[in-house]
Amino acid sequence: MKRRLAAALARSRLARFPAVALLGPRQSGKTTLARALSRRYYDAEQPADRVRLDLEWDTIVAGRELAVIDEARTWPELLPRLRAAIDADRRRNGRFLLVGSVSPALMREVSESLAGRLALVELTPFLLPELDGDALSRLWLAGGFPDGGALRPSRFPVWQRDYLALMAQRDLPAWGLTARPQVTDRMVHMLSAVHGQVWNASALGQSLGLSYHTVNGYLDYLEGAYLVRRLAPWSGNVRKRLVKSPKVYFRDSGLLHSLLGIGSRTDLLRHPAAGTSWEGFVIEQLLGALSARGVNPAPHFLCTSDGYEIDLLLKLGAKLVAIEVKLSASAAPHELARLERAADFVLADHRYLVCQTPAPAASSTRGVLDLASAIERLRKLGGVKPRP
Predict the structure, then answer these.
(1) Calculated CA dihedral for residues 42, 47, 50, 51, nearest 10 degrees
(2) pLDDT digits over 153-165, tens only?
(3) Which among 1, 254, 14 is positioned nearest to 125, based on CA atoms?
């Protein structure tokens, strides 16, 4: 099994909480990681496992072994039993690991039933530090899903198309999305065309024949299924008119590329969306690496009415970090100067331009980084110790 950054965080949370929810998109490796943490595994979607869990419940409650329960939210009757078992001995930690494929916003019944008893850990598809040193090009093109190209390159992009079809036809309706699969499919394709752009629900709704309220509701489900990310606009005190709508990004670059008809690195570099694809990929890698280490950086972007932009603003402790992303092998002086000017508006403590440079060059607070060095720089700024 490949080393996953979130494994250490899961063990740490299990040592401090009675239950932990390991969340993330379908097929991102959650079950593999969970089984590595404990051999006592139950899939609540399988009737046979429900029977086995019911028969072995007293042994689980009395024992010391971690019990892994996959998709517990599909079995509502289980939640009161979990709560009662935890409350009977609140001093015991590391008892239950719940695995799920939807965010807390879509698993309200679990969050409400186990409030104060449950810690959350998110597992993304593969991140750059989790793969071999030469994985960057493959990871950007095919995305991070283990079976979708990160480990098996030949499966891209067919795997991604099947994945999205199954999400639209089966999983999203099961999780509460009322849209017909054909509407979901059209919306997902439209979102790929506006990847990295400021969200305009009214324009998308007109194309779909839906109200902007309905489109926003559908987007909530796509976000809750870890398909897209809404990046919030900066709202601090800046003497500029600011864009006040979020940007929307596909969280996995492989899913984006399959929707855009990109099947090779040559196709990708020739495509008009290559720049925004790289931007979204870098943002997701940086945020995923921080999240896997238990750091919540409160991400935002900055866009002023007169064209100044910062692709990613992160709050790491008392430090504000400004990051601009460019699809290039170097940074031009005017690009660095523009980043400095925009960062001055928000009084950013650190300013970095992330590109595909073969020779990163940065001082303690500013400079040009490649993705790997940017991930490492943010790890240090977030106060996270390196893994032994």
Answers:
(1) -120
(2) 899 999 999 999 9
(3) 254
Q: Which of 76, 64, 10 is CA-nearest to residue 40?
A: 64
Q: How far apart are CA 275 and CA 334, in angstroms?
A: 18
Rg, C-alpha atoms of the chain: 22
Strands (E), 292-359: 300-303, 309-316, 319-325, 350-354
- pTM (2 decimals)? 0.95
374 Cβ contact partners less than 8 Å away, ≥ 6 residues apart: 282, 286, 323, 352, 354
Note the pLDDT tens digit of each residue in 201-224: 999 999 999 999 999 999 999 999
367 DSSP β-pair partners: 352, 362
Compute CA 345 distance to the chain's CA centroid, rounded to the nearest angstrom.
28
Domains and CATH numbers, the chain: 5-122 (3.40.50.300), 129-277 (1.10.10.10), 288-381 (3.40.1350)
Q: Give every CB contact of residue 296 below 8 A, 6+ residues apart in sequence.
A: 290
Q: Are 228 and 283 in contact (CB under 8 A)?
A: no
| In 44-130, alpha helices (H) | 47-55, 57-62, 78-88, 108-113
Pairing verdict, β 247-250 and 228-233? antiparallel
